[in-house]
Amino acid sequence: MVLGQCLRVRAGETVTVETWNHALPWARAFVLEARRRGCEPTLVVEDEEAFFGSLAQSGAATIPRAPITLVRSSDAYVYFPGPEQFSRLLGLSNDELEAVVGRHARPEWRRTAHRVHLRAARMAVAAATPAAAARFGVDRDAWEQELVRGSLVPPVQLARRAAHLVRRLRRARRVRVHHANGTDLALELLRAPPIVEDGRVDRTDRRGGRHWTQVPTGVVAVPLVPGAAEGVWEANRATYDRFSNPAVSVGARFTFRRGRLTEYSFDRGGAAFSRAYLRGGHGRELPGALTFGLNPAISRAPEVGEVAEGTVGLLLGGNRMLGGRNSSSFAYLSTILGASVELDGERFLDEGAPVTAAPDSRGGTYDASPGRSTRRANSSSSVPATSR
């Protein structure tokens, strides 16, 4: 699925598979599949004990980065993230932590990836470790199984789901999101193309500097006009971030006045948001983007909740990576399951399900799509989209 439908590798191409120790069984399977397809695979292992040994001996200056030479010699790249013992990183500074979890994000790596037309995939299944499950308070096996199911949804299926949303989002300017929990928020879409994450890295993605896809995925993102927001947003799904303390936040409530966040509160776990927001700098208070989840196999898995079908997400802060104007380093994504959305006064989502334009004899009404899913109970998973 990943090498074929997502990265579209061909015989004779070079495939680099990078992994930490705990994900070696997954990585080996990818090496075997690459060979079966006639590719030339290279397996790169970041040994966890050696990594932490060098960190203890020489400090943060020795934090390894993904070698540029691997990018130059690769047509496709698969990364199984780590380390498994991530709690040993919690004492690092923000910059040091980003050097580990964002090891493929430095400018030289991205420029090289762009030059060689790299197609890359980050495999979220490697994140479902016993340590992470304990930190989040979830069942590790159920988490991993859901990630596997979500990873097996064909990209073409996600692309079809996205196409309906994109057609209407391209024409729209005004957005209203509302939910029975009290959410009622008016926003304005920026005149920029929606970003589609369907699991494939195609020419459009690479031209836009997007060489990575996450697996599983399935989301449409649209940047918002800065300073155009009025109303209340209340998330009904949890946000997970293993490097925050606390690692789970629930019940985010954001109030916007004259385009800016003026009040916020959480039912639980808001201290981590408050600390990040206080150091977020200019632009942190602006809504950055709306996201719409597409993946029918994702519901409760931590750290990928924004891709769940029927989910609407609000990104607060920086949105330059989505074609927006806000360069703030602060970014926080919270989500609502089952929200209704209007575009320019016409229904777009009805309790999370797409509404298809179908004028009746009067020429102006809309009917629910025949393929709409039933409303699901609130689930608990959502994180900001990151390169971690």
Name the shape in a single word. Answer: globular
Tally of DSSP helical segments: 11
Strand content: 25-35%
Q: Can you count the beta strands?
A: 20
What quaternary form is this?
Answer: single chain
List the domain count as a whole number. Answer: 2
Uncertain segments of ≥5 residues (pLDDT<50)?
359-388
**CA-based gyration radius:** 21 Å
In which range does the helix fraction lie? 25-40%
Class from secondary-structure proportions: alpha+beta
Mean pLDDT: 89
For the largest beta-sheet, the strand count, sense and barrel status come to:
13 strands, antiparallel
Distance between the termini: 22 Å
How is this fold's topology laid out?
Blueprint: H1 2-6, E1 14-20, H2 24-36, E2 40-46, H3 48-58, H4 68-72, E3 76-80, H5 94-101, H6 107-115, E4 119-123, H7 130-136, H8 140-151, H9 155-171, E5 174-178, E6 184-189, E7 195-197, H10 203-207, E8 212-215, E9 219-234, E10 239-240, E11 248-249, E12 253-257, E13 260-265, H11 271-278, E14 287-293, E15 311-317, E16 331-337, E17 340-343, E18 346-350, E19 353-357, E20 366-368
Parallel strand pairs: 1-2, 1-3, 3-4, 4-8
Antiparallel strand pairs: 5-6, 5-17, 6-9, 7-9, 9-12, 9-14, 10-11, 12-13, 14-15, 15-16, 17-18, 18-19, 19-20
Structural notes for this entry:
This protein has 388 residues and is α+β, with helices and mostly antiparallel strands. Strands 5, 6, 7, 9, 12, 13, 14, 15, 16, 17, 18, 19 and 20 form a 13-stranded antiparallel sheet that branches. Strands 2-1-3-4-8 form a five-stranded parallel sheet. The protein has a two-stranded antiparallel ribbon with strand order 10-11. The two termini are 22 Å apart. It has eleven helices and 20 strands. The longest helix has 17 residues, at 155-171. It has helices at 2-6, 24-36, 48-58, 68-72, 94-101, 107-115, 130-136, 140-151, 155-171, 203-207, 271-278, and strands spanning 14-20, 40-46, 76-80, 119-123, 174-178, 184-189, 195-197, 212-215, 219-234, 239-240, 248-249, 253-257, 260-265, 287-293, 311-317, 331-337, 340-343, 346-350, 353-357, 366-368.
